[in-house]
Amino acid sequence: MGYVFNSKDAGAYEEWFDKPENRFVTELEGQLMLNMLKPMRGETVIDIGCGSGWSLLPFLEAGLSVSGLDPSQHMLDIASDHLGNRVDLFSGFAEELPFDDNSFHNACLVKTLEFAEDPEKAIEEACRVAKNRVFIGLMNRHSLRGTGLRVKRIFTDTIYKHARFFSIWELKQIIRTILGDVPISWRTICQFSTARGRISNRIECSELVQRFPFGAFTGIKVTLVPRFRTRPLELPCPAEAADGVATGLARTKWR
Fold first, then answer.
1. How many domains does the chain have?
2. Residues 248, 255: Cα–Cα separation, whole Å
3. Residue 1 lies in a domain
4. Which of 33, 82, 127, 236 is most buried, with most CB under 10 Å away?
């Protein structure tokens, strides 16, 4: 079991979200998810580690059928207050999802792997329950923001003491190890600051700028490739036919 947010953590996150600059960051993350996944209206999506539910709003606004899962009941209670019955909320862990294979068109892990006990298993599970695409959003280890958080946790009591930070290349290697040579694409946002405004938004949404690998938030899209299990097909062969084949082979050998 990874780190589960308690009531204090949940309250602190809500206070963080109330700040306009942080809402702007969350909106950018939502735009990035939709731009990379390109889901069709009416498709299903599961947000694994949905927290207080703010990351679900972009999918609702895009007309998707949305579900969220989180191990923290405190976070789920807040999500339920925010979203009511517009989403299906489940309690559970990313490493053991309570869903059948291919239950959703898309699956998301947004700032979830950092706190998972077994990130590799969490990715494997997300790919199991999704049939089209998986989006992974994470705090970039090699960004200024990521470096600052890792330094800060040395001196202060913060939830990031429990977090594992990933780089783009590390996560791509993990995905390749699990899934093989599947299509993977990535983008980053929050390159410079959390300044708000039309100009800042245009810069952050530029595909050229998002190819810069050191933005504070990284989005990785995995396009799933169908795989089929096969087994040898046993064909009935009468004993007389088998003897005839064996005799024929023997004659052929000695000619």
1. 1
2. 11
3. no
4. 33
